[in-house]
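Tutorial, part two.
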Amino acid sequence: MAVSNFDVGLLLFALAGFLAYLFLSGLIWGAGYGPTPRRQLDAAASLLELKEGDTVYDLGCGFGRALIYFAKRYHVIAIGVDIDPLHCFITRWTARRQGLSTDITVTRGNLLDTDLRQASKVFFFLTPLLMKRVQDKVAGEMPAGGRAVSVDHRFPDWQPVKSIENVHLYLVR
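Running the prediction step on this input gives:
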C-alpha cells in the first residue's frame, strides 16, 4: 500500500497541531508545560519524606511525570489535578499502561478548587503568577505539619524551611 503525499501532509499537520497545543496550552489553560527533571523529583520526594502508603497531591500535574515517578519509586497513592483535559487523559492512559491505575487518581479541575483539608503532602511546579493564591490555599486548608513542596518558584510571603536543587519545602503551621 502506497502512502500518498496527502496522507503524509495530513500526518504532519496533525503532529504540528499536537505540538502547538502542547506548548501553547498555557495560553488556553493558564499554565504552560514544563516537565520536572528527575533530580528535582528526587529532591521533592526527600523533602516530602515520602514513604510507602503515603498520599501525595500534585497540583497542576500536567502529563503526570511526578505522579508516576512517586507511585513507582515510593509506592505512594498519588492524586493529580489538572485543568487540561489532554493532560488528564494522557496521565490516566500512562498510569494504566504502567500498571499504576490503582495508585494514581487524576481529576480534571482547577487546582485552586481542590480540597486540601486531608492533604499532608503536596507537590507543585506552577507559574509564579499562581504562587500567592496557592500559598493562601495551603495556609487556609492544609493541616498543621503538612508539607508543601514547590519546584523553582517560592511562596511570596513565606521563607522555605529547606531547599534542595531549587525545590523548596514549606511546613504548614
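The chain has two domains: 1-30, 38-171. In part three we will examine how such features are distributed along the chain.
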